[in-house]
Write a sequence for this structure.
């Protein structure tokens, strides 16, 4: 049971990580976490080659440790799906986050719900795997019918707990996105 609970928790952690990359109209350095820049032939995360700061609520500043990286960072940001055009002052790449439109907020809310539903499916798949393991133990004679029922109830309670946690995450992120 502990292995399956750990898998369920990893699903929650993964969802939280995905939600941290969705921007809510404010400058959040985590939206750059997925971006990789070519650093001497090795794809490297932006935080590995630059200092990322938040000078104000709607601006991110990416200052590379090597000045020649400015153009590469700018290209990576332009090629990404962030929808932000970077500005280059020669030393840094500056990202100005515009106010989200109502349509974009609704689009992001749908994306949040879709990712939440995918996480729920992953939790349910883990529940199915756990139930199958318990049934195998029963067939092998390792546990009795009563013990199987008790284990299945524990698995269902854990599933319900993690599904409720996903619902809270969806609601919180949707509220954050929809707040002007």
């Amino acid at each position: 049971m502990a292995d399956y609970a750990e898998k369920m928790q990893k699903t929650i952690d993964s969802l939280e990580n995905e939600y941290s990359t969705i921007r809510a109209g404010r400058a959040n350095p985590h939206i750059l976490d997925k971006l990789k820049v070519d650093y001497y032939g090795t794809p490297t995360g932006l935080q590995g080659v630059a200092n990322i700061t938040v000078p104000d609520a709607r601006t991110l500043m990416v200052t590379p440790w090597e000045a020649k990286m400015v153009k590469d960072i700018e290209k990576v940001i332009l090629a990404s799906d962030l929808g932000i055009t970077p500005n280059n002052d020669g030393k840094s790449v500056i990202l100005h986050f515009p106010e989200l439109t109502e349509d974009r907020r609704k689009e992001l809310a749908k994306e949040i719900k879709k990712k939440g539903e995918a996480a729920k499916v992953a939790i349910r798949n883990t529940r199915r795997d756990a139930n199958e393991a318990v049934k195998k133990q029963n067939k092998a004679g390792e546990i009795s019918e009563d013990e199987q029922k008790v284990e299945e109830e524990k698995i269902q309670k854990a599933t319900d707990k993690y599904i409720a946690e996903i619902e809270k995450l969806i609601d919180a992120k949707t509220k954050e996105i929809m707040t002007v």
Observations:
- The chain has a mean pLDDT of 87.
